[in-house]
Amino acid sequence: MANQKAGFHTTIDIPGTSIPSVAFGTWKLGQGQQSTDHVEQAISIGFNHIGEYTAQAYRNESEAGIAIRESGLPREDLYITTKFSGRDGLDIETSIQNSLDYLGLKYVDLYLIHAPSLAVPDIPTAWAKMEKLREAGLAKRIYFQPYILSTQMPIVEYGNKYGIVSEAYSVLTPLTSQPGGPVDKPLQKIASRLNSQPEQVLLAWAKSKGVVAVTASTKKERLEGYLAAGDLELTAEDIAAIDAAGLAGESRLTLRKVLRRAAYITLVGGAVVAACTFMGIRVL
User: Binding positions for substrate (predicted)?
Assistant: First the structure.
């Protein structure tokens, strides 16, 4: 494996296989040569798991495939994940074949259902189709992707108990999309103590949960920092503090959505009453 280093270059073992514990995703890379270049860069500095965000919906599987081939690494040295996204209204069977064609591969190591709403007509039927893909050798592993921290954690804990590995996508969201939230304080405190960066602490937290962390960046130095995050040792108190802050942040976001919806309903209601009054219609 090229440029193997310490840190996040560990694997999570499950019956019959192992999964690299950090992955490089292609979600926001776009299409074209720049996407290929960024995937090549990630592979060159040591990322050997390309995926989770390598999905049909992001329309850059071809670019990822070019980077994979140009890396010169044997297929077995790379772990490739992609997702069924319902692209162009195609079914699961057609979609994975298209993905393999775009990627230039005979199989993917992991195939996911991108969102619960895509399991049509229902989860058991969709899952049966996924199992047939695995039996045909098109995907070595299959998985269904849940959402929301409060519902994810019981799933992660259950999985850890029974040898089922979960992946954490967008694990850096509290820093990149929700700055100033409750998670910032414990991350800053821990990072200062460990002489590291907050994003490294958050990745180390994900690793402590026994999950595969999926992240991305176009900057080489950040990617190197992400890999080095695997060397951080968090205490039980560190992990508990981040857990509590994350749940507090989720509650705050939920409240914000409720208030926003209430304000919208109030505005719409006020507009309706005003219109009715203008037209001489009694509403009460």
Answer: 114
pLDDT in tens, 163-204: 767 777 778 888 888 888 899 999 999 999 999 999 999 999
DSSP letter at 32 equals S
Cα 219 to the chain's mean position, in Å? 19
Q: Rg of the chain's alpha carbons, rounded to an integer? A: 22
Name residues whose C-beta falls within 8 Å of residue 199's C-beta, 6 or more positions apart in sequence: 172, 175, 222, 225, 226, 229
Neighbours of 137 (CB within 10 A): 9
CA pseudo-torsion sign 157, 160, 165, 170: positive
* Residue 212 CA from chain centroid, whole number: 9
Binding-site annotation, residues for substrate:
114
The span from the CA of 157 to the CA of 246, in Å, is: 16
Which of 216, 212, 28, 220 lies closest to 199, judged by CA? 216
Q: Residues forming the annotated binding site?
A: 114
Integer Cα distance of 215 and 99 in angstroms: 21
The structure's pTM equals: 0.69
**Could you tell me the CA-to-CA distances from 163 to 71, 144, 181 in Å, in that order?**
32, 15, 33
Point out the catalytic residue in the list 58, 102, 169, 226: 58
Active-site annotation holds for 58: yes
pLDDT digits (tens, 9 = 90+) for 213-253: 888 888 899 999 988 888 899 999 999 999 899 888 665 54
Which residues are 144's β-sheet partners? 113
